[in-house]
């Protein structure tokens, strides 16, 4: 008996290969069930897989959503903190030896150098040789100059191909901004005194003025 059963099983398993399955005698009732069962099984399996996948998908999206919102909350916090720190030192102070001037910090040099050296000096101090926006700002800066006999290079020189005055930020001078006394020629740079604005050979030595934004300064000290 046992032997027969084993034999039958073996035969079934051998016969159930795709080619032989249709006409054989024994597998008839075995095969009648399976197409149905298998279909149902496959359907069930697919359902389970779909369910698992959708649960995973949901979990992932929920996690990423909560992370995103917490990141957003973080950046909002940072923004608010930044507002507070920039607004707290209300009468803005520049660090010595820089002096406060409106929304900038100014540094008036005490030594004399050619224009190109002063240009480099300001950039090594993470600042810029002075740029002047208009007549009003020029007058206000001139009020910071104590002695009438001192002259300060600013960030304006004569550029050759164009034969025009050019600010070191790359913009050309609007002639209405400054009335420059002296020659307008090659190798000329601009300095200011308490009273006036002059053109002079860039190789001559003068003092100079560096400026930088206060925001830049507060970040250096506060961050
Ligand atoms: C932060 O600054 C922005 C503009 O820079 C302003 O609109 C906002 O109201 C400020 N927030 C706080 C809390 O001061
Ligand atoms: C400044 O210019 C002089 C002469 O034009 C030159 O010898 C010197 O190397 C320049 N210095 C810098 C820092 O550019
Ligand atoms: C360069 O500086 C001048 C003088 O302050 C200003 O008028 C001009 O708008 C500035 N240009 C740029 C590109 O910032
Ligand atoms: C004028 O300034 C520019 C930088 O803004 C510089 O490249 C150029 O050499 C300067 N010209 C002279 C004569 O120093």
From TrEMBL:
One of its GO terms (cellular component) is cell surface. Residues 101-211 form the C-type lectin domain. Pfam families: Lectin_C. It comes from the Eukaryota. SUPFAM superfamilies: C-type lectin-like. It is found in: Membrane. CDD domains: CLECT_NK_receptors_like. GO terms for molecular function: carbohydrate binding; signaling receptor activity. GO terms for biological process: regulation of natural killer cell mediated cytotoxicity. It is a single-pass type II membrane protein. The keyword Nucleus does not apply. The chain crosses the membrane at residues 39-63. Its main location: membrane. Keywords: Disulfide bond, Lectin, Membrane, Signal-anchor, Transmembrane, Transmembrane helix. This is Killer cell lectin like receptor B1. It comes from Otolemur garnettii (Small-eared galago). The gene is KLRB1.
């Amino acid at each position: 008996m046992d032997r027969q059963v084993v034999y039958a099983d073996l035969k079934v398993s051998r016969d159930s290969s795709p080619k032989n399955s249709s006409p054989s005698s024994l597998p008839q009732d075995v095969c009648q069930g399976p197409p149905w069962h298998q279909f149902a099984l496959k359907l069930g399996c697919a359902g389970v897989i779909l369910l698992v996948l959708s649960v995973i998908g949901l979990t992932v999206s929920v996690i990423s959503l909560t992370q995103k919102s917490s990141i957003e909350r973080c950046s909002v916090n940072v923004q608010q903190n930044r507002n507070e720190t920039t607004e707290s030192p209300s009468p803005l102070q520049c660090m010595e030896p820089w002096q406060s001037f409106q929304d900038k910090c100014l540094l008036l040099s005490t030594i004399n150098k050619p224009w190109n050296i002063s240009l480099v000096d300001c950039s090594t101090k993470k600042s810029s040789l002075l740029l002047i926006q208009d007549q009003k700002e020029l007058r206000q800066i001139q009020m910071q100059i104590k002695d009438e006999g001192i002259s300060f290079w600013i960030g304006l020189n004569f550029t050759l191909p164009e034969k025009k005055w050019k600010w070191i930020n790359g913009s050309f001078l609007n002639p209405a901004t400054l009335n420059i006394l002296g020659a307008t020629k090659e190798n000329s740079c601009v300095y200011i005194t308490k009273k006036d604005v002059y053109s002079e050979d860039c190789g001559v030595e003068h003092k100079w003025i560096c400026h930088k934004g206060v925001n830049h300064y507060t970040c250096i000290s506060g961050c």
